[in-house]
Design brief:
seven-stranded mixed barrel, Rossmann fold, alpha/beta, globular, about 30% strand, 2 domains, about 375 residues, about 25% helix, Glucose Oxidase, domain 1
Amino acid sequence: MTSLLDRDPAVLVLEDGTRYAGHAYGARGTTLGEVVFSTGMTGYQETLTDPSYAGQIVLQTAPHIGNTGVNAEDPESRRIWVAGYIVRDPSRVVSNWRADEPLDAALERDGIVGISGIDTRAVTRRIRSEGSMRGGVFSGDAAGIDPDEQLRIVVEAPEMSGRNLSGEVSVSVAAVTPAQGERIGNVAVIDLGIKQATVENLSRRGFEVHVLPQSATFAEVKAIDPVAVFYSNGPGDPAASGAHVELLQDVLRDGLPFFGICFGNQLLGRALGLGTYKLPFGHRGINQPVKDKLTGRVEITAHNHGFAVEAPIEGVFESPAGFGRVEVSHVGLNDDVVEGLRALDIPAFSVQYHPEAAGGPHDANYLFDRFRDLVADTLSKKDANA
């Protein structure tokens, strides 16, 4: 690990030519990605290990990061996935009894290039006004590259629109987690970038959780004899995931209950025949207000999405793909973005946010109970008609 006191140079370069000079944090070198900001004031380890952030350079709006270090219990997946990391004031000491190592040591071990000591509020305001944009962090020797060359490297990097990143974050072989308590049956989870907290929540509801690679076919899904199918969160553009949409349409036609979160919500929208679009700067953080239209309750929720579903906020409408009646079930109160879908003629629903959010908030955790109840009701009807 390199000491924070070494103060190697670093620079953040945005595709519009804006530059922010600071200090190297984590690994040294060059990294490229879409620059986004997360408003969470806690849970940085969960953010870093969320596969949904693959391809993104994450800026923390909370100024002081790293004071609790990192540990082996809280990761959401097998590694850090962010493309790069931006913080204002990294902690020089670790002050938590659960910590195994400092945050910058973990960043360096996983090869995550970061920058510290810049005005993160200024960067956030620029993204909010101009929209998310590509950027690059150049640290150590790379900070000395000619500025025009640095900008050229940034603008030639791929944009997030049109990118399919599921194959980069998904498991390559299936993994099974036993059910806890009264067993309901097998749930086929398509891993598009799943978080461990999701697996644990499904297991606690009585599902034997079969996490399948994102390349799984409908035949492979049916081979585990599932009582339901689940699509996880994940990175990338839903418009670039045609195979996952086709698989989901097969699932819906088969009558299997379905629940999707985050990327899974966008893919349900596309499977139902709806469009998706890129948000100006996305929703990322753990303080997003969402209204559950079924109960009227307002929940504080955790988000990480740069794309959203196009659908009428009010009323019931017909699925353009022929799956019956559909309604928007949840709405974001900051900007009226679709935050959930519910099919009325088939057993399927989804939400755009994270009901499994480790570290909180836990307002939306009831959705796993809603899924369990939907599966139980579907199985009961099937037995009655047998």
